From TrEMBL, chains A, B:
Belongs to the SLC41A transporter family. It is found in: Cell membrane; Membrane. This is Magnesium transporter MgtE. The keyword Transmembrane applies. Signal peptide: none annotated. Its main location: membrane. It comes from Aquilutibacter rugosus.
Amino acid sequence: MAEMIRQDKTARQLRLLSDAIDSGRLGPVKRMVQTLSPAEIGNLLESMPPHKRNVLWGLVDPEDDGEVLLHVGDEVREGLIADMDQDELVAAVEDLDIDDLADLVEDLPDAVINEVVRSMDRDDRERLEQVLSYDEDTAGRLMNPDVVTVRADTTIDVVLRYLRLRGELPDHTDYLFVVSKRHQYMGRISVASLLTSDPNTPINKLIDDAQPAIDVNESSTEVARQFSDHDWVSAPVVDDGNVLLGRITIDDVVDIIREEAEHQALSAAGLDEDEDMFSPVHKAFRRRLIWLTVNLGTAFLAASVVDQFSPTIEKIVALAVLMPIVAGMGGNSGTQVLTLMVRGLALGQIGASNVWFLLRKELSVALINGLALGVFLGVIVLIWFHQPMLSLVIGCALLFNVLTSAAGGVLVPLALKRMGFDPALAGGVLLTTLTDTMGFLGFLGLATLILT
Amino acid sequence: MAEMIRQDKTARQLRLLSDAIDSGRLGPVKRMVQTLSPAEIGNLLESMPPHKRNVLWGLVDPEDDGEVLLHVGDEVREGLIADMDQDELVAAVEDLDIDDLADLVEDLPDAVINEVVRSMDRDDRERLEQVLSYDEDTAGRLMNPDVVTVRADTTIDVVLRYLRLRGELPDHTDYLFVVSKRHQYMGRISVASLLTSDPNTPINKLIDDAQPAIDVNESSTEVARQFSDHDWVSAPVVDDGNVLLGRITIDDVVDIIREEAEHQALSAAGLDEDEDMFSPVHKAFRRRLIWLTVNLGTAFLAASVVDQFSPTIEKIVALAVLMPIVAGMGGNSGTQVLTLMVRGLALGQIGASNVWFLLRKELSVALINGLALGVFLGVIVLIWFHQPMLSLVIGCALLFNVLTSAAGGVLVPLALKRMGFDPALAGGVLLTTLTDTMGFLGFLGLATLILT
């Protein structure tokens, strides 16, 4: 229900905008776009076929262009950037925060980057270079160097006067960071405590130093975990020497959480979370073709197993009729186990201490389900084909395949992870290969032994 | 890589704890647990088989019990609560925030709720009743009634003095809410502006009233969308008459975002995001059995299609060998389209304005891929079986099935959504039924026409 309401809201905006663009009434479109946040505009751009997307993009306030570019997937972004000339691009990105600019750098033409860097002051240029020197997907790339720091040997009153002089705080400033003379991180002091404590209170009485700062080389996944485990809004980032380099804020972390959670759903189908739903056919077909060709390879493997049993099938054609059932049920039950495992691995919930318990549990569940479904299927097949031995064969084959797929569902993702592959991406293909080949081998092999 | 590092960290904690529990050295376990946040403890509890989980649960500081219960999935939570006696439960939950207590109410025994409610003052009791009066998955259930409000006709100085008197601010207070005499929401004033503006500035000069408050009946999905579209840390909630009822904070929103994104990955395999990975076998097998039985039904449908063509298969047994390929490729290509559509629908990116474009695009992609793979498969089959007509039949059948599955991938989730079903849950089963039956029908039908 909740999802439907949401869909209705965004879809309504989408319909209004689409209709207006179709009819050429661009005035109302422009006014509507001005009321939207960059993220909302980004979502609408992602929801439009290329020709409409370009019209809408042309109507976005040039001041918002940079922020909007940050809120669309990689593929859509490339298309939008290709549609802009150099001056427009420079104007769009030159006012962005350093961390946001760093996100865009690799998508921008060199000429644009050079121009933007030339217009920066020396401080900002050094900051950008610093942020870019860290690996993608690390805290260093997520952090913004713009932080408010205070010294421990002062009072709230002094800090309040300093803040009034400063005039503005960076977004999401819930803590100020206390640093030493050498700019080393000593702890944080909440904005709330500045507001509620007596102005004469010394800062060092209010310091919260329970939580160490984030290491600049920490992975973004671990950063996201820490934010959601501790309900942080912002957190300090330091180098090896504990020198404060910048801070990470919750808005960037929410994007990571969303991306990582989407990754499991999309990569199970061989898709990339940055795929443009409306990408041109010539781009889309190539990506899909690679995935389908991999799957064709596994299908050939299954077919070659069946091929070994051609003589048996020739005698008992009912086997061909029942083949899809055994393979399909193995695939379904294995996928359930695989999906739970992939999530558990992503959350760090699975390790040597519990994997044997999991395997035993899944095999027990598979044993019960395999027996129940095997008997059920056996009875149906008996009624259908009136051959008691065939009914026995398919019942046993189903049990065997459900057990195999449970073991595969637990062990395949673990093995992939250990070998450095992404279980979310490769797990499904490998598991299907396993359940198909083992399913056909069990069913047709047993049939050959018992029925011929 | 990022995921592996994360896994390593949590898995290391898990291994340490597991080993310590195994060896019975509970002192170190207790000390380690005291350094962890409730969310981290919750994650570790979810990562343990029942017997270890109960040991760890007994070592958690009773003061943290309530917070930890909030950070585990429904099924794990039920188990933990079942393990506690009434006094422990009352002690665990009586100090929780109203909104958090409301989350737990339905899992708690009536006796515990009555005891907790009795110990509350009248204000809190009324607040709890109010929060519970709203539907689950609405803003009303997410909000916390504890808000800091100020009046417009005063100055910063007065507000600062009031805050010092108040002494403490609720977590994540980045804005104070300005209300009228009748407690109607008028706008918000940032904590940053309180710190940086001159103390004599009148509040009404600093009010930010650009964004309307969230309606108390708004769906939690829409609340999450607004938070991430506007980078909010907190937002006000009002009733029909614009009276301020409470506020929602980013920590609860992050949980919603995570759950909704996981929903797609898990429900595609017929799983619930609240499933306990270590649930007892007698619980797990029942849930899985229901899903497998549904899938068995669709497998029977596919088998009965094959059954119609038994005479053809009897003559040409190669058809049985190649059957899995045609059906499998249709399933794979259809699943890609389905996965993109399910995500697009969840994000509200698909509507009447773009669905025809999407259908045309996916059919074009399927046409190219179907032709390419059809020719490729045809050549392989020609080399394998030396039957040109068979090779023609399978090539055409593959093309037909890839096209069917693309159309199904677009239309099945749309139809499900329109009928009020969850496309993420039912889409896969329906699409597989379609691609299996149409795949076999196309392949075996064509073979019957041309080869016999």
